[in-house]
Write a structure and sequence with these properties.
CATH topology of the largest domain: Rossmann fold
Largest sheet: 6 strands, parallel
Order of helices and strands: HEHHHHHHEHEEEHEHEEH
Bound molecules: ligand BV8, zinc ion
CATH architecture of the largest domain: 3-Layer(aba) Sandwich
Shape: elongated
CATH class of the largest domain: Alpha Beta
Helix content: 25-40%
Number of domains: 2
Radius of gyration: 19 Å
Strand content: 15-25%
Number of strands: 8
Distance between the termini: 23 Å
Strand order of the largest sheet: 3-2-1-6-7-8
CATH superfamily of the largest domain: TPP-binding domain
């Protein structure tokens, strides 16, 4: 993977950066992606699980899936890709981290401000009264968690297909994309909208768009530069170039 002189120069001067991450940034932590090899959705179909009707039809099945994913997340840790963005946030005056991931790993890595477009699997709320219930543990013999306040069904606080994204986060992400000089699209296949529109908007607004991915994606054709490889290797290298060129060796 070679980094162009254009990007090296930009990394030494850039003051406004917008990042979009997807499941690929968590792959090296051992969290399965959705659509890549071994992706969970290759086995499971999103229609059956990640939508509200499926949940109301079979809340137990959907909760077993989320409970399984939460259990996996207890044993994984952020990887050098997540950590690189914690450092980049310190180096860049106007830095915005937008994620599609619900795995909470950016926050666990120490990123102070994360725009979670698809929610967060660690949070849950009542479908009837909206009360949040964050100490929900579901195992297969236990019934679906019920709201202490009104007895309604508790659901994971993630955005399912056909559901609106949190408007404030989406607006803030859109604004950051519209003003950034450099946009990094990292570990996302770019198939899910409106999130996948963020890097495209940045490019159209004049940003230099770089894709960090092990494979070709739906966003590759929009990028100024493709860095083919693992985010856990590439992102620390980008930060090293930033630090060196700004005389801020760690
Ligand atoms: C909405 C949360 C509107 C739950 C998720 C037809 C055309 C276009 C759009 C649509 C359409 N039909 C329907 C739509 C809209 C739909 C959509 O985009 N569908 C797609 C599939 C066609 N979008 C929606 O429904 C959204 N809502 O539009 O509402 C609306 C309007 C009016 C009124 C009401 C509503 C809601 C979308 C959110 C869905 N929720 N997840 C959960 O996670 O359990 S989506 C799910 O996909 C995850 O959030 C995930 O983050 C997201 C995107 O996937 P990726 O992160 O990109 O992961 P993926 O596995 O695909 O790719 C991983 C990449 O990493 C790969 O490229 C791989 O090569 C790379 N990689 C692997 N290892 C590494 C690596 N890269 C670097 N380093 C490595 N080591
Ligand atoms: Zn309730």
């Amino acid at each position: 993977m070679t980094i162009s002189q254009t990007l090296r120069t930009l990394l030494s001067t850039v003051r406004s950066v917008c990042v979009l991450t997807g499941a690929g940034i968590s792959a090296e932590s051992g969290v399965a992606t959705f659509r890549g090899d071994g992706g969970i959705w290759n086995k499971l179909r999103p229609e059956e699980l990640a939508n509200f009707d499926a949940f109301m039809r079979n809340p137990q099945l959907v909760w077993e899936w989320y409970s399984y994913r939460r259990t996996i997340l207890q044993d994984v840790r952020p990887n050098p890709g997540h950590t690189a963005f914690v450092r980049m946030e310190q180096l860049i005056p106007d830095f915005t981290l937008v994620t599609q991931n619900v795995d909470n790993l950016h926050r666990r890595a120490g990123s102070s401000r994360v725009l979670e477009l698809h929610g967060n699997i660690e949070r849950s709320y009542c479908v009837s009264c909206g009360t949040f219930a964050n100490d929900v543990h579901v195992s297969d013999e236990v019934q679906v968690p019920r709201c202490a306040a009104c007895g309604g069904l508790i659901r994971p606080d993630v955005v399912w297909f056909g559901e609106m994204l949190p408007q404030d986060e989406l607006d803030e992400a859109h604004e950051a994309a519209g003003r950034c000089e450099l946009c990094l699209s990292v570990g996302t296949s770019g198939v899910v909208y409106p999130a996948a529109g963020i890097p495209i908007h940045a490019r159209q607004a004049g940003a230099y768009l770089v894709e960090v991915n092990t494979e070709e994606t739906d966003l590759s054709r929009h990028a100024n530069e493709l860095l083919r490889g693992a985010s856990g290797t590439i992102l620390p290298e980008l930060v090293r170039i930033m630090e060196e060129s700004r005389g801020m060796n760690a």
